[in-house]
Design brief:
16-stranded antiparallel β-barrel, 18 strands, mainly beta
Length: about 350
């Protein structure tokens, strides 16, 4: 009987220790998204092409991430995420890109906010994706194409994500305010080259969201001291009327060395209908530089996104693009997106 009691007690202790370990175990998930579309594609001033491409509404990617409960309302987080071109089966958004360029970070969450270090998307990129009806589509959103894509002028330098980044997101305070800040450490002795900064102040209350962002990129994409620096200020908001959600943004930036100055206005609306939504957006960028005459660019997009299920949707899009000094271009596309 005594022997049985000792065995039972030992089993109970081991069971409790095992339960405690499981309670604090890291919750790891494999996730991602595959987005493919077929299009007749043409930007202003370029010939048209018929393409099968990856990343229409969202750039295709995969990821592994997890959280661990540290107790006291605190948790550890991590994620490693890579872009992919599903049309060719290659990694990255472009040939030669590193495998984990979407994100690769570790961090802590708690009452004081969220801290992350690693490779991270910038606060400005995240905000611009949240303030237009097409979300993070760098193929069809007038705002995202003109801000981030080289063929459309790439108004903002420094890529949508930064290496060697330190990131902070505050808790909500003051009835709806929050702050996001990020720095990219250039890791160079005796120089500020590469020490980029990006910050967002946001206010959300019910259907209203307004925000302002400021970003300084000191070296462009190639980590060269000779590359131009750039300052960007971006402001915008959205309001959800239930029957329609409207968006408006304005940004201006100045690039040193080239004297490039860009001002961009954007408006958009998303209208739910059935199991999907209609989307319309327009953006105009006005640009002046030291090396060419002033010009402006208008991009207008319209489309419908239909949800087949919680994880799968299909879409049809049309894009009109016109540079003031070139012939117009028109794109028609249809695609499918699946989340896993």
């Amino acid at each position: 009987m005594q022997r049985f009691s000792r065995t039972a007690i030992a089993a109970a202790i081991l069971s409790s220790l095992s339960s405690a370990a499981l309670a604090q175990a890291t919750n790891v998930q494999l996730y991602g998204l595959v987005d493919m579309y077929v299009a007749r594609s043409q930007m202003s001033g370029t010939p048209s092409t018929t393409v099968v491409n990856s990343g229409g509404m969202t750039t295709s990617y995969w990821g592994i991430g997890g959280t661990e409960n540290l107790g006291g309302g605190n948790s550890a987080v991590f994620a490693i995420e890579g872009f992919m071109r599903a049309d060719t089966g290659e990694a990255g958004r472009t040939p030669g890109e590193a495998m984990l360029t979407r994100a690769a970070y570790v961090g802590l969450n708690g009452d004081m906010g969220q801290f992350k270090i690693g490779r991270l998307p910038t606060p400005l990129f995240q905000l611009s994706g949240n303030l237009n009806p097409f979300g993070f589509s760098t193929r069809f959103s007038p705002l995202m194409t003109q801000l981030w894509i080289a063929g459309y002028g790439v108004a903002v330098m420094g890529d949508s994500g930064w290496n060697n980044a330190v990131h902070y997101t505050s808790p909500t305070f003051g009835g709806g305010f929050s702050v996001v800040g990020q720095v990219n450490l250039g890791e160079r002795s005796g120089t500020a080259v590469g020490n980029d900064t990006s910050a967002v102040l946001r206010y959300s209350s019910g259907p209203l969201m307004v925000a302002v962002a400021a970003q300084e990129v000191k070296n462009g994409l190639n980590q060269s001291a000779a590359a131009p620096s750039q300052r960007t200020v971006f402001a915008g908001g959205s309001y959800d009327f239930t029957a329609a959600k409207v968006f408006a943004t304005y940004d201006r930036n100045k690039t040193e060395l080239t004297g490039r100055r860009t001002r961009m206005a954007h408006v958009g609306v998303a209208v739910p209908q059935g199991a999907g939504k209609w989307m319309v957006g327009w953006a105009r960028a006005n640009e002046r530089t030291n090396v060419r005459a002033p010009y402006h660019r208008d991009t207008i997009s319209a489309g419908y996104d239909y949800n087949l299920s919680v994880r799968t949707d299909i879409y049809a899009m049309g894009v009109y693009d016109k540079i003031s000094t070139s012939a117009s271009g028109t794109t028609y596309a249809t695609g499918i997106r699946h989340k896993f």
